[in-house]
Backbone:
């Protein structure tokens, strides 16, 4: 019987047949270099190419890898399913084109001092090599979070390490899917009083962004409004109870 993994890496993928077969071995190598037992959960969602079949071929020869298949393209739903499936002490959110063994090692060194570790593109020591427009977008998004939610974190999108009890407590409450699942997760963890640490991240785009940043703005703002309404409604019910 395999030991409980120290790390469960959840990887949402959609139509990545041309990338996953080379990226997944690099991810495995990065995780092996950390020196802790791990599992990889590939959360395929709504792909119309061979992504799921390629992931299954890796899982067939490596019992540290498993595949979840979701019928519709939905990043947040894929993350939710992967998080709830994960068995590791730490549940980690990576993307197939954005992961870091250095981030994992830094997070593991924090031991019991925190429950959530975020890789931030905005704290001192970070190195954000994305375009000026995308950096501006991250700044603006964080400004909205500070104003609307009084959040003190600098970055909710990107790599994360979350302890299993936090996942069990927070994930079932999350209503957001698509782009804002991880933002709502961080906001809820912050409001629940969990200890959060931010580690400087190096961000270098390995390929052109697959979705339009500008087109996501209206959907993102509406999603944040729904999160705010949900949190206020829950607070009123707690006060009434």
Residues:
């Amino acid at each position: 019987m395999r030991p409980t993994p120290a790390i469960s890496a959840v990887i949402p993928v959609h139509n990545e047949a041309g990338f996953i077969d080379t990226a997944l071995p690099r991810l495995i190598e990065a995780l092996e270099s950390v020196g802790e037992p791990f599992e990889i959960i590939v959360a395929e969602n709504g792909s119309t190419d061979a992504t799921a079949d390629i992931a299954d071929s890796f899982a067939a020869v490596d019992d540290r890898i498993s595949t979840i298949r979701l019928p519709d393209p939905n990043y947040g739903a894929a993350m939710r399913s992967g998080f709830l499936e994960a068995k590791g002490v730490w549940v980690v959110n990576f993307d197939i084109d954005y992961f870091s063994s250095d981030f994992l090692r830094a997070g593991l060194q924090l031991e019991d001092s925190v429950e959530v570790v975020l890789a931030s593109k905005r704290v001192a020591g970070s190195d954000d090599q994305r375009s000026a427009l995308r950096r501006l977008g991250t700044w603006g998004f964080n400004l909205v979070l500070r104003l609307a939610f009084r959040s003190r974190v600098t970055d909710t999108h990107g790599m994360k390490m979350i302890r299993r009890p936090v996942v069990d407590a927070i994930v079932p409450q999350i209503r957001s899917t698509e782009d804002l699942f991880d933002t709502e997760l961080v906001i809820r963890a912050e409001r629940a009083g969990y200890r959060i640490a931010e580690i400087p991240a190096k961000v270098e785009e390995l390929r052109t962004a697959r979705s339009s940043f500008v087109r996501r703005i209206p959907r993102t703002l509406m999603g944040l409004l729904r999160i705010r309404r949900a949190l206020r409604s829950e607070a009123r019910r707690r006060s009434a109870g």
Summary: The helical segments are 20-34, 51-61, 75-85, 101-109, 132-149, 164-170, 181-191, 213-240.
